[in-house]
Write a structure and sequence with these properties.
By secondary structure, the chain is α+β, with helices and mostly antiparallel strands. It has two domains: 9-47 and 156-290, no CATH class; 53-148, Alpha-Beta Plaits (2-Layer Sandwich). It has nine helices and four strands, in the order H-E-H-E-H-H-E-H-E-H-H-H-H. It has helices at residues 2-49, 64-76, 88-99, 103-107, 127-138, 150-191, 194-202, 207-243, 253-283; strands at residues 53-58, 80-86, 115-120, 143-147. The longest helix is centred in the first third of the chain and has 48 residues, at 2-49. The radius of gyration is 32 Å and the shape is rod-shaped.
């Protein structure tokens, strides 16, 4: 009879440990995904911004020395991430390929102009900065016109601000949920041992002595759950890197390592704090309140 009861208690204990580890794993795995999304969201936004091109057209009387001088200026310009010179002949060929017929045969000349397609660095793809850059480039007398999608620039920046705001809200919400879920699982685990806690207290054991094994056990469970979460995140990152290499999700290994370290640290910290206060609660209860 006693053996059956011991087996039942052991199974219940294992089930309790499993539920705690599972809840820690799931919550930290979701938090880790959110963390990677946050650190890569700026990169994705910057990549999108840097694909918005500013085209600088030159007058027909701009000679090679003028174009070479402007090219040298772009090489040293802090705002230029990359640039491509498009000659009027190359532009004409591209237009011919697009429309499917040689428009120069109809017009009798090439009306297009030499130009530079400039991709700005992400920090400069804002309304005020682009306006300053445009003003600076227009000081060149050989510049005929400067074209870029102003509405797209404003739309991108507005949407990035909105998305960043909601990411912040969701991050805070999920963090609170994570703490509450892990805390609830650990409180239930401590609750099942409330009589043992009170018995030890009644025979003279100090609060610190009683609390220590529960805290150490919870920290071990937190480390196990966090360890599984870290391994799952590494597997997910490896899968994304293999199947979607253009995202470059593993380019910044320092940030990736930092997120994984934070996830592991959160698993230990939350379990320690939750167990400490849960144990303290039962230590402060009167015997009658245990029922």
């Amino acid at each position: 009879m006693a053996s059956s009861f011991d087996k039942f208690q052991k199974r219940r204990l294992i089930s309790s440990y499993f539920s705690v580890v599972l809840s820690i794993f799931l919550v930290l795995f979701l938090l880790g995904i959110l963390g990677f999304f946050i650190i890569n969201s700026k990169k994705l936004a910057d990549d999108f911004k840097e694909k918005i091109a500013m085209t600088v057209f030159f007058k027909n009387d701009a000679n090679n020395s003028v174009l070479k001088s402007f090219k040298g200026e772009l090489k040293t310009a802090p705002f230029a991430k990359s640039f491509v010179f498009v000659s009027k002949e190359t532009a004409a060929k591209e237009h011919t390929d697009i429309i499917g017929e040689n428009f120069m045969a109809f017009l009798g000349e090439n009306p297009l102009q030499n130009s530079f397609d400039i991709n700005l660095k992400a920090d400069y793809v804002v309304k005020d900065s682009i306006a300053k850059i445009e003003s600076r480039l227009r000081k060149n007398r050989m510049v005929s016109d400067i074209v870029y999608d102003k509405q797209l620039v404003e739309l991108v920046n507005d949407n990035i601000k909105k998305v960043s705001f909601w990411i912040l809200i969701i991050s805070g919400f999920l963090t609170v949920i994570a703490v509450l879920l892990i805390n609830s699982s650990l409180r239930l685990s401590i609750y099942s041992n409330r009589f043992i806690i009170k018995t030890m207290q009644m025979v003279g054991a100090t609060k610190a002595f009683i609390r220590k094994p529960f805290v150490m056990r919870s920290i071990k469970l937190g480390m196990i759950g966090a360890g599984f979460a870290v391994l799952a995140l590494i597997g997910l990152l490896a899968y994304i890197q293999v199947n979607f290499p253009d995202l470059g999700i593993l380019d910044d290994k320092l940030l990736v390592g930092l997120v994984l370290l934070v996830v592991f640290g959160i698993g230990i910290l939350i379990t320690w704090i939750s167990t400490y206060f849960a144990t303290q609660r039962f230590l402060n209860l009167r015997t009658d309140d245990l029922y």
